[in-house]
Amino acid sequence: MSSLSPPPSRSHRVPLAAAGLAVLLVIVGMAVLVARTGEPATRTPAHTGGPGLATTAEVAPADARSSAPGPAPVVVRPNADPRITAQRADSGRLGVRGCAESVTEVTAVAADDLHAVRLTWDTPGGGSGSTTMTKGPESSWSASLGPFDESGVVVWQVVATDSHGNAAIGDPLRLIVGDCGARATTLS
């Protein structure tokens, strides 16, 4: 008589079959991806030693007979928000509307592949407003602030949005608007 061991119990065969099926599905999925794109998925080179950032990719059918959907853009937003520094209002006099100097220039330094930079403010009378800032040399941005109808405190700040949709809001600063002849003062 031969010494054959009994076959493994049925409970041991099921997990083994499930694991084999999972491996097979992963291999088939990767083969389909390579067949459609012609090359394996890649990442962009890392910048400053960090991990590579995902970029826009297109998935297209392998040929005209394919039932796969057409180009499908995939966009992953990087985590870095724009940076805003060196916000200030030009020194000088700022009075209410009608005064000789009722407008001041606001400047800021903003960086990170910017799409838009805006200056926003709340007026002494409870209103608010905003305007698009103009790009200057290097990373500088500027816009005019004023005139205002009432004296009091104007709270203003810079809002920068990059091309990926990330936004940064600068620190709110206060500007004192006085009667004609009052000096503009930026308070922190």
Please name the defining characteristics of this protein.
188 residues; Immunoglobulin-like; 2 domains; 4-stranded antiparallel β-sheet; 1 helix; 12 strands
Summarize the structure in words.
The chain folds into 2 domains: about 70 residues, no CATH class; about 100 residues, Immunoglobulin-like (Sandwich), CATH 2.60.40. It is about 15% helix and about 35% strand. The strands form 3 sheets. Strands 4, 5, 8, 9, 10 and 12 form a 6-stranded antiparallel β-sheet that branches. Strands 1-3-7-6 form a 4-stranded antiparallel β-sheet, with no helix packed on it. With about 190 residues, the protein is of the alpha+beta class.
Task: Characterize this entry briefly.
The protein is of the alpha+beta class. Helices cover 15% and strands 33% of the residues.
What is the number of domains?
2
Number of strands: 12
CATH topology of the largest domain: Immunoglobulin-like
Look at the structure and give the mean pLDDT.
Answer: 73
- Helical amount: 10-25%
Low-confidence stretches: 39-64
CATH architectural group of the largest domain:
Sandwich
Q: What is the CATH C level class of the largest domain, in words?
A: Mainly Beta
Number of helices: 1
